[in-house]
Design a protein that fits this description.
single chain; 6 strands; 19% strand
Length: 142
């Protein structure tokens, strides 16, 4: 299982528009579904991002504190720490509080918002890669 992906320099536009020239736009993707991780990583790599993956919330939190990603895309239902627990921990830590967060879930956004509302984007599963592109376009620049 791969845990980090590197994009070629200069590929895509998300990284070039959103991160300092000294480092690529870094995205942490957390999902316990390896196929989903690979699909999202492929989209992000095509846009020139550095992609770090995690298969559970605890792994994602540890990696986030180490790499300080620009964006975190997380499934809500994961082992050890769920997506909402991960998002709350990210917002509570000064090292990761400014990371943009996209939540992914099979339940509606209206069901999630009362539990946690400090996120930047939401993808309801199942979603198409075009939906991912749209959300990325909305959250890439604050």
């Amino acid at each position: 299982m791969r845990s980090a992906y590197e994009a070629p320099n200069g590929a895509g536009n998300l990284a070039l528009e959103s991160a300092p020239a000294s480092r690529p736009f870094t995205v942490l993707v957390a999902d316990d579904d390896q196929e989903m991780l690979d699909a999202i990583a492929g989209v992000l790599l095509a846009q020139g991002c550095r992609v770090i993956t995690a298969v559970d919330g605890r792994d994602a939190l540890e990696k986030a504190l180490q790499v300080r990603p620009d964006l975190v895309i997380t499934d809500l239902l994961m082992p050890l720490i769920d997506g909402i627990g991960l998002a709350k921990a990210l917002r509570a830590d000064a090292l990761t509080a400014s990371a943009r967060i996209v939540l992914c879930s099979g339940v509606s956004e209206n069901s999630v918002r009362p539990l946690f509302s400090a996120y930047d984007g939401f993808l309801q599963k199942p979603y198409e890669l075009d939906d991912l592109h749209q959300v990325l376009g909305k959250v890439r620049v604050r």
